[in-house]
Amino acid sequence: MSNDPYKILGVSKSATQADIKKAYRKLAKSLHPDLHPDDPGKQAEFQAVSAAYDILGDTEKRRRFDAGEIDASGQERADQRYYHQYAGQDAGARYDQGQRAGFGPGFGGGREEDFADIFSELFGQRARRGGAAHEVHARGNDLRYHLEVDFLDAARGSRRAVTMPDGKSIEIAVPAGVRDGQTLRLRGKGGPGIGQGPAGDALVTIAVRPHPVFVRDGDDIEIELPITFDEAVLGARVDVPTINGPVSMSIPKGASSGQRLRLKGKGIARGKTTGDQTVRLKIVLPKKIDDEMTALAERWKEAASFDPRTDIRRKT
Amino acid sequence: MTLDERTVVTRIERLTLRDLRLWVREGWVRPAQGQHGPVFDDIDVARLRLLCDLKKDMALPTDVMPIVLGLIDHLNRTRRDLRRVTEALDQQPLEVRRAVIAAVRHRAEAGD
Questions:
Q1: Which residues of A touch B43 (CB under 8 A)?
Q2: What's the pLDDT tens digit per position in A4-55?
Q3: Does 1.10.287.110 match the CATH number of domain A5-84?
Q4: What's the gap in Å between the CA of A292 and the closest CA on chain B?
Q5: CA distance B18 to B31
Q6: Can you tell me whether residue A309 is helix, strand or coil?
Q7: Closest Cα to residue B32, out of A91, A155, A160, A104?
């Protein structure tokens, strides 16, 4: 294909901006990729036409192109994903046969089990649809919500109210252990049905805000617990936060940084099973080391022959 | 990925907040409802770009938009259905696939 934007749009060098716009509109209407989703040739042509119009449609860019300051390439639109590339996937079901004014009655509404006509015909339901054709019964629309919940609310479960644009409010029971990105389906909480059709569902997508201390791994919770030098050496009983409040835990004598201790049943309770909490120890020294600690360390260094790096040396 | 109204308008240069709200009201784009207003994901943003192409670049009149969108939505549903049928067909034994292809070809030739 020619690289010359004038040739691509089929206009002369002396064309007015109005001529260029008109030429572009005409081509865009016949080539738009969303109007020809399975025709990669048309998509390539449309991209060339768009790129040409990006230059010629803008008087300043056109002047610079005419003056040779910019070339026809490098102006091409970034590799944009077109609507049909999403709509051809399962996510596209949301926009099936419009659910509001101007689209006709709202059938389906993108529920997985709603088969399109083609499937009904495949499975021989065509005959059943005879008679009473003027009586329309259809399932109501699905309504979609996006709900952000705090980490602890997601871990323990909670009840939340969501307000719809029309001011109505629905209460949502967020189940314990809900995952980030999970969608809850509330049967019958969507739009009203048409005729004797059932109401649609409310689809609530959950976003979980991360927590500064707790990290989730399945139904297990992991935290990093800072301990002092003396707690590590002598062992200690300390309070450890869990998603259900602090519990007392014993640190064994001679604990090391990175050591993991398990608090059984202190994770997320979901159904019959409950996860655990893993506590990762981290020995933390004070910012300022006092004389006593320095003296202690020097005395210990003299006497001890402990080398924690023998293993590393052997393996490298 | 979910975006609020303002972020969407920044991301799509041609789109004004006024048009965005109007199109949502018309039902041309259907974002999920968040606690602080509508939230848009990838497919909504791609659809908004398409709406800009249709409404702004091609200058389609407002009363024609529902018809065009209805056809596009229908087209995409059909494509999705066709893809599912094709995928299901791909899982069938070779002789079944051959028989189906032969039957389809026969109908096409017969002009059915």
A1: 83, 86-87, 91-92, 94-95
A2: 889 889 998 888 999 999 999 989 888 888 888 888 888 888 888 888 888 8
A3: yes
A4: 54
A5: 15
A6: coil
A7: A91
DSSP category for residue B57 = I
* Residue-level pLDDT at B33: 86
d(CA A86, CA A285): 53
Which of the given ranges, A61-75, A130-144, A153-167, has the highest pLDDT on average? A153-167
Asked if residue A226 has pLDDT above 90, the reply is yes
Of B32, B50, B81, the CB nearest to A118: B81
Write a three-state SS string for chain B. CCECHHHHHHHCCCCCHHHHHHHHHHCCCCCEEECCEEEECHHHHHHHHHHHHHHHHCCCCHHHHHHHHHHHHHHHHHHHHHHHHHHHHHCCCHHHHHHHHHHHHHHHHHCC
Class of domain B1-60 as given by CATH: mainly alpha
Please give the structure tokens belonging to residue A116. Answer: 């399109």
**Measured CA angle at B47 (ends B44, B52), to 5 deg:** 125
Say if domain A111-127+139-208 classifies as CATH 1.10.760.10.
Answer: no
Sign of CA dihedral A3, A5, A9, A14: negative
The strand pairing partners of A138, in sequence order, are A194
Query: Is residue A97 scored above 70 in pLDDT?
Result: no
Query: Looking at this protein, which amino acid is placed at residue A244?
Result: N
pLDDT, tens digit (0-9, with 9 covering 90-100), for B16-45: 999 999 999 998 999 988 888 899 988 999
pTM score of the predicted model = 0.60
Per-residue confidence (pLDDT) for residue A134, from 0 to 100? 56
Domain map (residue ranges) of chain B: 1-60, 62-112
- CB-nearest to A98 from B31, B57, B73 is B73
Pairing of strands A143-149, A202-208: parallel
Measure the N-to-C terminal CA separation of chain A; round to a whole number of Å: 58
Question: For B66, which of A102, A164, A205 is closest by C-beta distance?
Answer: A102
**Domain map of chain A by residue range?**
5-84, 111-127+139-208, 215-288
Question: Hey, do A5-84 and A215-288 end up sharing a CATH topology, with the first three levels equal?
Answer: no
Given this model, what pLDDT does residue A222 score?
Answer: 96
- pLDDT (0 to 100) of residue B107: 87
Q: Domain A215-288 - what CATH class? A: mainly beta
